[in-house]
Amino acid sequence: MKIKGVHLPGNKEAHVKKWDIPDPAGDQVLQIKASALCASDLSIYHGRPLIPGYPPGTFIVGHEPCGVVSGTGPCARSVKEGDRVAVIAFVGCGHCPYCRGGEPNLCENDMEVLGFTTHGGDAEYLLVSERSCLPMPDGMSFVTGAVATDAIANLFSTMKAMHVCGNDVVAITGLGPMGLSGVLAAAGMGATVLAIDTVEERLAKARELGAQHTLNPENVSPVDYVRETFPGGVDKGVDCSAAEPAINVLLDIARKHGVVSQIGEPGERMIAVNPSEQLIRKKVSYVGSWYFNMNEWEEAASFIVDKVGNDRAEGIVSHRYPLEEEAAGEAFRLFNAHETLKVVFTPGS
Ligand SMILES: [Zn+2]
Ligand SMILES: [Zn+2]
Fold this sequence. Notes:
It is built from 11 helices and 15 strands. The chain is of the alpha/beta class. The strands form 3 sheets. Strands 3, 4, 5, 6, 7, 14 and 15 form a 7-stranded mixed β-sheet that branches.
């Protein structure tokens, strides 16, 4: 079958072309309604894919899609034609202890990821296994569905792992789409949010999405601000910037027994911290966080609809584009230039 899908040849260009995709076999056919761009897509855009071994342009990109099931395989049991579903980006083997526990991103046998090692969702259609389909609640729009997995559910899972509650002050550094998803998640859980970034428009967006406190560290020292406003320190911190100063700020302002989660990825860069002062003497936990557990999906999805609200969740999306040649070029150009928040393709709408 021939379908339209986004092609990133790896030279900072994005095109929409017709692809020959295999017959569905046992997979379900999903008609894509929305598919979000992710910073990790830019590794392919620049010709250095995050997952080596698959040259840029091998597959249709996109790993944050959602849509409507338009055809089911012969063995389908839980999905049927017409179902609205989001898709988990990691395929996984389905059998190892991590896959069975709901974390195909930690699979021991298979690092298969949509858009990187197999065709992705910036397309008209996508073939997916039944276990990759995450049912979307009625109140969730397709645009929200596209940012509900990798972005919002990811941060929902992070906040949950830290036991964030209404009594907590949660500091978040780096207010791109991930940090703003953190604002949505923490505020939705009733926490007081302190959002930190050097870009004023992002601070304004964080306020709009529920942060009660915002701070530009170029103007105000976060350590001084927290000393005056939250004596003893903040309960929880989440870094979405991957910047060494921001990570150190969070470890400095964490209270005794506080927890700091690392989401922003420094990649090859090493980050210097002071374990004695920042971790040991405060008994602070500094933990890595990556994606969400599939078993959290239903809870995350109803949290997004009931506590965050669909319209507010769409607030992390700044640009929507049809699946067309010129639109794809502009979408990736602006996203790459950091001139957007989340960018979503809306094929067939
Ligand atoms: Zn992503
Ligand atoms: Zn596995």
